[in-house]
Amino acid sequence: MRNKLCIISIFSFLSTLTLAQDIHWSQYDHNPVFQNPANVGKFNGDFRFHGNFRDQWRSVTVPFTTVQVSAEAKGLLMDNLSFGLYMFNDAAGDGTFRTIELQPSVSYVHKLTSDSTHLLRGGLQLGLNFRSFNANAFNFDNQWNGAFFDNSLPTNENFANQSRTNFTWGTGLVWEYQESKRKRISAGVGLFNINQPNQGFFGETIKRDMRLNLFARAEYEIGFDWDILPSLQLNLQGTYRELIMGSQVRYILKDRLGEYQTIMAGAFLRSRDAGYIMIGGEYQNWWAGLSYDINFSSLYVASNARGGIELSIRYILQRFNPRQIKHRVCPDYI
Fold first, then answer.
1. What is the CATH number of the domain that holds 72?
2. Given the DSSP bridges, would you call strands 64-74 and 47-56 parallel, antiparallel or unpaired?
3. Would you say residue 289 lies in a domain?
4. What's the CA gap between 226 and 46, in Å, rounded?
5. Residue in 74, 68, 103 with CA at minimum distance from that of residue 88
6. Which of 101, 151, 164, 316 has the least CB density, counted as fewest CB within 10 Å?
């Protein structure tokens, strides 16, 4: 009974924190539009599509599930201008506390050097945040009949509002240096929830804290077929702090005659919370990756180290540009 009360207390505290925090991802390197709006268009191709899925705390309670899709397009209006859009659906807890966000983005790239080795990208993100919960999924003291909770009994609770929609916006800046295809580094800063929208349900004002995101990543060739990809990310939001650092290693199976295949593996550490491992691979314009969190926070007693599983998938589309063949007409002297 004492352990159960401890678990309930921990999750009550966790739910309170969740009200003031944005969602987070383990595979942040493979979720660029959510990480920073200036990442929109930061790829080789014309269109890029991402899908991400995360399922966590299934071993403890009703799982927290997040699904996200994003799309980007380059050069539709101007060569240096890119457009992006992401949408996610996050559901947590017995009352299905749901967060849905729809965020269009735009980014602009400026060449700091004429050879494009140094680039500076700026991005702007505007969108809507919708939050709701299902009060009918909860039990209240009025439903206790002396032996058990009876859902058929009235709750005598009146919830005037079980949903809220807010406007939110953010911005970001990313610097990129690329010496070659397999030697590059980038770093960026993003600021989100700048207008601090109100997310209180019952008349009180509960502002959503601004979130500051800092990241850096690199790709470096360490052998003929081997690359190392270290990265780190820091999120600061209110009293919440999240620092993630680690690295992936990529082995190139094939890269010739238009064929490209790789396999990747990595390990990361999220400060005072979890460590996770990931595997993935690239095939032509496709990427797919899978990661698993190993929890070692104060919730370890309840989770038995089992955190969450995350899946990412990506596809880059390149428009076909037919080759222009110019024929030279020879004069006819006959």
1. 2.40.160.60
2. antiparallel
3. yes
4. 27
5. 68
6. 151
Average pLDDT for 61-71: 89
Domain residues for 45? 2-135+163-317
Any domain includes 144:
no
Residue type, 49: F
Which residues neighbour 166 within 8 Å (Cβ) at sequence distance 6 or greater? 128, 129, 130, 131, 197, 198, 199, 208
Q: Is the pLDDT of residue 1 over 80?
A: no
In this structure, are residues 200 and 223 in contact, taking their beta carbons and an 8 Å threshold?
no
Query: Rounded to whole angstroms, how far apart are CA atoms 4 and 244?
Result: 30
- The rounded Cα 133 to chain-centroid distance in angstroms is 23
Give the pLDDT score at 305.
66
- 331 assigned to some structural domain: no
Give the pLDDT score at 188.
97
203-248 pLDDT, tens digit per residue, is 778 899 999 999 999 999 999 999 999 999 999 999 989 999 999 9
User: How many residues are listed for the chain in this entry?
Assistant: 334
Burial class (CB in 10 A: 0-12, 13-18, 19+), 244: buried
- Give the whole-angstrom CA distance, residue 313 versus residue 257: 24
Q: How far is CA 117 from the centre of its chain?
A: 27
Strands (E), the chain: 47-56, 64-74, 81-92, 97-111, 118-132, 163-180, 183-192, 211-221, 226-237, 240-256, 259-270, 274-283, 286-295, 306-317
| pLDDT above 70: residue 16 | no
Mean of pLDDT over the chain: 86
State the CB neighbour count (10 A cutoff) for residue 224: 6
Count of domains forming the chain: 1
CA distance 224 to 280: 20
pLDDT tens readout for residues 153-168: 777 777 666 788 999 9
Q: Which token pair is 241?
A: 């702090």
Domain presence at residue 323: no
